[in-house]
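Example record

Each entry pairs one chain with its bound ligand, magnesium ion.
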Amino acid sequence: MSPIGKNPPNCATPQGRSDVSTSFSHDDPGSVTPTPIGADDVGRRSATVPAIACRGLCKSFRGTQVLFDVNLAVESREVVVIIGPSGSGKSTLLRCLCQLEEIDDGEITFEGTVVIRRQHRRPIARASPREAEAMRGEIGMVFQSFNLFPHLSVLRNVTLAPKRVRRIPDAQLQDLALELLSRVGLAHKAAAYPAHLSGGQQQRVAIARALAMQPRIMLFDEVTSALDPELVGEVLQVMRQLAQDGMTMLIVTHEMDFARQVADRIIFMDAGRIVEEGAPSEIFRAPRHERTRLFLQRMLDRVGTGRDDS
Ligand SMILES: Nc1ncnc2c1ncn2[C@@H]1O[C@H](COP(=O)(O)OP(=O)(O)O)[C@@H](O)[C@H]1O
Ligand SMILES: [Mg+2]
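Structure tokens for the complex follow.
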């Protein structure tokens, strides 16, 4: 395991952080000379470039720090599941990774290219608005709330964003949308309106909508939390299939059985920090940290099962 560099100032020293190997190769982090984005960043790529990664990521809201020196690298085709108690910073981390939040300190890279690097809260390097937009388009994000447009059919909800951004001919786009809807089991609902769908169906449309941008990585933030229990399975099944098809995925979930089945790696976060990470069998069978053990116990108590079928 490689050390992850210095903690940026303004960023509290992590406690109990696990070192997460990344494939970065960077200049002296003490340097504050602005670095242009471009050819030199291509030169920084190593043999295995993570699909998405952050290093030393710190984030505060109105003076309260909620992420502390977070280091994470998701490899291409890897399925990483983040678990942890409410308020531990899971959503904020995902939102930072897909540029919905400005970070205070640290660095985010997408396929080896710097999206943003800040130090002492100052930007050291940043992708141009056009590059940043392009990278954002490569990241699909699905949230707890589906936010479909109620006045548009399912098909138009799915084609809307790629029609604007990707400039794919209409006929081709329609074929793509129908193919994606059939992938989530909803081709027969293409002409329906969201109000006529169940929550589980709407969430599956939301997944098809994100896939329509043909993203390189999908981020899922508690996408089944708002669903009635009987609708959770159909959404998890779609995600399971995506994982089997080789999609790179970063998933926040409280569905522990699903996490155990689908994840290549589990990350446990608490109080804004990555406390530990490992293979599902390691984390679920033999967590190293007391905080992880207590959290897992609470989750098992909640669903009333102590089964371990990993
Ligand atoms: N936009 C915001 N403004 C202020 N505080 C926020 C905002 N978003 C999240 N927080 C705070 O950041 C902390 C982490 O929140 P969050 O990332 O939503 O945690 P989780 O997803 O693990 O439940 C919480 O204390 C939350 O109240
Ligand atoms: Mg959350």
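The first strand starts at residue 52 and ends at 61.
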